[in-house]
Amino acid sequence: MSTLPDTVLSELELQAIELPSWAFGNSGTRFKVFGTPGTPRDPFEKIADAAQVNTYTALAPTVALHIPWDKVEDYDVLRKHAEDLGVALGTINSNTFQDDDYKFGALTHEDAAVRRKAIDHHFECIDIMHATGSRDLKIWLAEGSNYPGQADLRGRQDRLNESLRTIYERLGDDQRLVLEYKFFEPAFYHTDVPDWGTSYAQVSTLGDKAMVCLDTGHHAPGTNIEFIVMQLLRLGKLGSFDFNSRFYADDDLIVGAADPFQLFRILFEVARGGGLNNPDVAFMLDQCHNVEDKIPGQIRSVLNVQEMTARALLVDAEALRAAQVSGDVLAANAVFMDAFYTDVRPALAEWRESRGLPADPMAAFAASGYLQQIAADRVGGVQAGWGA
Ligand code: PSV
Ligand code: MN
């Protein structure tokens, strides 16, 4: 395929994928964190690196922050810094998973004082959102238990609802809350928000400004994630994606790396359900680059999303529908697979060039010397890590 249809290009032109600030810091496993020369030492340097991704792809105009990892004295200054680099500050992620008080829960804790502390943290996040101009507050809760009988499952669900309501009521008119689910980790027996159904049950009681966040790595192996995408879009409650890929657990690898076909299927359902370039559905990455360079890792990630979106948009909807209606199983599957197997890379390269972007953003970034420059410049200080 040498060119893509205008209908596809007009959708691709609007695509925006938010980058996680923490992807630019050092990260690793519980065994070892390998440092990289030039790793950012503060949120300003993380945003400078994120802006590089947008410069070479025009796909990543916003950067998500994690609080307290990205706390700064003055958020107006950080906001201005981002704008000067051609990007904006995006989703604010709360963090109730790294404080001793939260050992047995935060928003679900038995002790009202601990719940109050966790709620106050979210109030602080909302204050930051006002300063950064962010719309979304993303909440992921590391809450659960390890042993049967350890916790009162029902009571925790009730306290969670009460805490979320208190946070929700604090949101501004244009702000939203997105509640992320994850089936296990750090708790191994039960998790308080383990699945989309629980997130949906919780946010549905709050109101229109509360939505579900779907992190692609947060499902049991074999889960049909595109079915969940379809259902949440159908219910009007798919607020955002945390894109990444996984082989085993919550691996946080480059989106589309482990299973490009799954990413294609997800993006097909997004497009089918009206979720593409729909402001209600935020596309974000939630990844860590443990052994590869971080900026090229993010460039590769946004390109993977772009590529699979293009392929998903190539599905011949009429032919697919006709085959489905007539019960022609193999023809329907062939229409679907034809689009998946279409190599759109040459056409995308040509299209990028026509828009004044590099045909090959990975090569252009590598040739820019930016990585060598930051390795030379960022000497001294403490490199930021996942969690700092
Ligand atoms: C939890 O595993 C999670 O997916 C949440 O989105 C956190 O904010 C993020 O990872 C931290 O890396
Ligand atoms: Mn996530």
From TrEMBL:
<keyword id="KW-0479">Metal-binding</keyword>
<dbReference type="GO" id="GO:0019301">
    <property type="term" value="P:rhamnose catabolic process"/>
</dbReference>
<dbReference type="InterPro" id="IPR013457">
    <property type="entry name" value="Rhamnose_iso-rel"/>
</dbReference>
<dbReference type="InterPro" id="IPR050337">
    <property type="entry name" value="L-rhamnose_isomerase"/>
</dbReference>
<protein>
    <submittedName>
        <fullName>L-rhamnose isomerase</fullName>
        <ecNumber>5.3.1.14</ecNumber>
    </submittedName>
</protein>
<dbReference type="GO" id="GO:0046872">
    <property type="term" value="F:metal ion binding"/>
</dbReference>
<keyword id="KW-0464">Manganese</keyword>
<keyword id="KW-0413">Isomerase</keyword>
<dbReference type="InterPro" id="IPR036237">
    <property type="entry name" value="Xyl_isomerase-like_sf"/>
</dbReference>
<dbReference type="GO" id="GO:0019324">
    <property type="term" value="P:L-lyxose metabolic process"/>
</dbReference>
<dbReference type="GO" id="GO:0008740">
    <property type="term" value="F:L-rhamnose isomerase activity"/>
</dbReference>
